[in-house]
Amino acid sequence: MSQMISVALTVNGKRLSVNAHADTPLLWVLRENLKLTGTKYGCGVGQCGACTVHIDGKPNYACLNAIKDLDGRSVTTIEGLAPDSSHALQKAWIAEQVPQCGYCQSGQIMRAAGLLKENPRPSRQEIVEYMNTNICRCGTYYRIVRAIERAAKEA
Q1: If we measure between CA atoms, which residue out of 102, 96, 107, 111 comes closest to residue 154?
Q2: Residue 1 pLDDT more than 80?
Q3: Average pLDDT over all residues of the chain
Q4: Which of 56, 59, 73, 101 could, after both became Cys, cross-link 114 (CB 3.0–4.6 A)?
């Protein structure tokens, strides 16, 4: 097992220090150490997108980023996107009734937020291509696309 280290990072706008084994994935630091359970464990190998968070403003898989590589970096989770659920995507997700089981939704929203940050007015095809890294086992892809289109219009 790797050695314990202390890492200084900013999570959802708050600067903090975390003690963990160097190779611990960010996902487990968020969920276990910081009790931010909105980020979900899906596959653990970067194949499903359920654990998507933003690292320095860009979507990343929390399961693939070791805490040792995040010293001085900034992480935003679903809890930090808009704590009062006022983000255009959060509103659109509700309006379009996207969630079925809801398990993948925080990762979907965080991925979509990355898209809209890069491209505020994406085409339907651009949405589909950008979002293809995130799996929804319930198959709500059509509603996800509609919600992103709505958020882009209303943002």
Answers
A1: 96
A2: no
A3: 96
A4: 59
Give the burial class of 138: count Cβ atoms within 10 A of its Cβ; 0-12 exposed, 13-18 middle, 19 or more buried: middle
Q: How far is Cα 61 from Cα 145, in angstroms, rounded to an integer?
A: 21
| Residues, the chain | 155
d(CA 134, CA 49): 4
Spatial CA neighbour of 8 closest among 75, 61, 54? 75
Q: Read out DSSP for 100-137?
A: SS-TTHHHHHHHHHHHHHH-SS--HHHHHHHHTTS--T
- Give residue-wise pLDDT tens across range 91-143: 999 999 999 988 999 999 999 999 999 999 999 999 999 999 999 999 999 99
Predicted TM-score (pTM) of this structure: 0.96
Indicate whether 2 pLDDT > 90. no
Residue with tokens 């903090």: 16
Closest among 144, 139, 140, 26 to 130, alpha carbons compared = 144
Q: Which tokens in the block code for residue 67?
A: 């805490």
